[in-house]
Write the structure tokens for this entry.
Amino acid sequence: MTAAGKHQASRPVGRRLERAGIRDVAAAAGVSITTVSDALNGKGRLPDATRRHVREVADRLGYRPSAAARTLRTGKSGLIGLTVTTYGEEPFTFTEFAYFAEMARAATSAALARGYALVILPASSRHDVWGNVALDGTVVIDPSDQDPVVTELVRQGVPVVSDGRPAGSLPVHAWVDNDHEEAVLGILDHLAAAGARRIGLLTGTSTDTYTRLSTTAYLEWCERIGQEPVYEAYPAHDPCAGAVAADRLLARPDRPDAVYGLFDPNGTDLLAAARRYGLRVPDDLLLVCCSESGGYAGTDPPITTLSLQPRRIGTAVVQLLIDAIEGIGPAHPVQQVMPTELIVRASSQRRAHRTTVSPPRGPARGEG
């Protein structure tokens, strides 16, 4: 028998390790059960010293409030949802994309820090998962115009916070987003300063605010400087469609000499398309894409990326949602704008004077 086996065998059969309860904390702290409850839940009119003392005792004893007891006492489950509704019935696994994965990771940590668990749910399902999971509130990422999931959740009295500025009068309790117009203008100015004269855009066909605002900013910039827009749109949930759209963009007679791609895979899609058409990056084509993937630092050449700061956004949306659940904060909808960060790498910086861009040609022999 191993040492671990001997250790297990020495334990009394049928007994479980007892978890400290609220009565144990009260006895050890020398206060009433009500005082313990108020101290740990931030309620009542207790001196700060008493609250600290009770929390220190609770931590020392390893006390954790019972989820079942909390549900009976407060009517709350301690569960908050996270979903992407933009793509509806489409087979879209959002955790495969770096932004969503980072955002969900931060949101999970922020929820746990305040005693809640995060449940990632599909926007739609053959099974009534939304009805079967008792949620105290929900974070919705990039809701579309007139989003039916958001509308129904609010109708049921479930607080909703949006990662993304909702369109129109979508009734969310709060939203957190980036200034997408400002971010796009900064990227376009960066590319123009690097020598680009005809900047293109890879964008999506969905109606979420990120796509809509970014595309509108590009079109308005083109109008302001007198450039004819050069862009291709595709369903962002389809990874194959992105590569096809990148190929279409670089095969155009008015091919751009710089491109900004709105979505995570666009950097590698454009880099591959450029090689098929014999274009050198950054000499013939400047590239920027929006991505949180560190892999772009290792491509050849390294690709400039825009970071939307998903960890900060994930933390903020959960904090706002739990505040709404617990009745903390202002009664009016809260709006927070997070800064973006442009991580400049070789793909958007010309190494020498701007070269003459040759007319489009077919893919190199042997390439498809």
User: Anything to note?
Assistant: The chain has 13 helices and twelve strands. Confidence is low (pLDDT under 50) at residues 1-17.
